[in-house]
Design goal:
Helix 1 packs parallel to helix 3. An eight-stranded mixed sheet has the order 4-3-2-5-1-6-8-7, sandwiched between helices. The longest helix has 12 residues. Strand 7 and strand 8 form a beta hairpin. The termini are far apart. It is α/β, with parallel strands linked by helices. It is globular, with a radius of gyration of 18 Å. The protein is built from five helices and eight strands.
């Protein structure tokens, strides 16, 4: 398990931690949480399931998360959704989320995106693992990934994630893209923070700790 000193550079300066922040239903769906027309891939018809449960405590927590960000990393689809919403909305003057997204550097892991329209965006189109490793080596707080399910799975598989934050909503969607597929690599997690809001949204922060341990199967006699 990583010790606090492992996140320090040669001169004792903290290097950037890669954190993922994902909103999921109890059955693991992350698609179309914000609105009915946000993401209708695959005929998804149940969008907008998160806002009715996103009460003040969750909003306060998320504001604090965005205030810790020094940069953002997106997959192409989530980047385009954010660019078409947060990237074009006028400054409300009191939103830490808007301020962070529109003033901090944004990186997109994509081999097809060209000419990004959102200011302060860099496309990582070459060796993404090496480029992300260079970003993490910088003296800063957090490189945050929001949404971007395919990217999150790839980052976890390549052991680039330092913390996983899940906001789990008390609802079963029954269709849509899930954060983790039916098959994939296994990972052990250490729970470092847990809380619940008055609407039943649970917030857990995990750190990956390598492979899980499995109980020895009981011999059949």
């Amino acid at each position: 398990m990583e010790s606090p000193d492992d996140k320090l550079g040669k001169k004792g300066t903290a290097t950037m931690k890669l954190t993922t922040v994902t909103h999921v239903s109890v059955d693991g769906v992350m698609q179309g949480l914000g609105g009915a027309y946000e993401d209708r891939r695959g005929g998804f018809e149940r969008g907008g399931w998160a806002p009715p449960l996103f009460v003040d405590e969750a909003y306060t927590f998320l504001n604090g998360v965005f205030q810790r960000a020094d940069a953002f990393l997106f997959g192409r689809r989530t980047y385009e959704i954010f660019a078409g919403s947060w990237g074009v909305w006028p400054d409300p003057g009191d939103s830490p989320i808007w301020t962070a997204l529109n003033t901090k550097p944004k990186y997109v892991a994509s081999t097809t995106l060209t000419g990004p329209r959102w200011a302060n965006t860099t496309v990582l189109s070459g060796d993404s693992a090496a480029a992300i490793g260079e970003l993490k080596a910088k003296p800063a707080r957090e490189l945050q990934v929001h949404g971007s399910g395919n990217l999150i799975r790839w980052l976890i598989d390549n052991q680039l994630v330092d913390e996983i934050t899940l906001l789990t909503y008390p609802v079963i969607i029954g269709q849509g893209t899930r954060l983790f597929p039916d098959t994939g690599r296994d990972r052990a997690l250490e729970l470092v923070e847990s809380r619940a809001t008055s609407s039943g949204v649970t917030i857990q922060v995990y750190r990956p700790t390598g492979r899980p341990q499995y109980a020895n199967p009981t011999p059949i006699t």
